[in-house]
Amino acid sequence: MRTLLSLVAIALLAVVALMYFGIINIDQTRAGAIQTPKFEADVAKVRLGTETKTVAVPTISVDKPGTAADNGQVPAN
């Protein structure tokens, strides 16, 4: 690992030295431009609205012990 790192460092130094003496010249020929990507999505359409409906709701009655409806009998299941 140390040998590989040493070879990369030597190659990097050689490239820097060649650029310094003008043997290697790197020019940017075209200006870099960052373009934002364009996305299109085909999604379902959702429509919101209201409507009036009559809904049957069950009624529940609870007879507590000690009320007038309590006549001492055990409720049947």
Distance between the termini: 82 Å
Gyration radius from CA atoms, angstroms: 42 Å
Biggest β-sheet strands, sense, barrel = none
User: Per DSSP, what share of the residues sits in E-state strands of 2 or more residues?
Assistant: under 5%
Question: Overall pLDDT, averaged?
Answer: 79
User: Can you tell me the residue ranges where pLDDT is under 50 for at least 5 consecutive residues?
Assistant: none
Fraction of helical residues: 10-25%
Number of distinct beta strands: 0
Order of H and E elements: H
DSSP summary: helix tally: 1
Secondary-structure map:
Layout (H helix, E strand, L loop, with lengths): L1 H19 L57
Can you put this structure into words, describing what you see?
The chain is about 25% helix and about 0% strand. It is mainly alpha-helical. About 0% of the residues are buried.
Entry summary:
With about 80 residues, the chain is an all-alpha fold. The protein is about 25% helix and about 0% strand.
Q: What would the keywords be for this entry?
A:
77 residues, mainly alpha, 1 helix, elongated
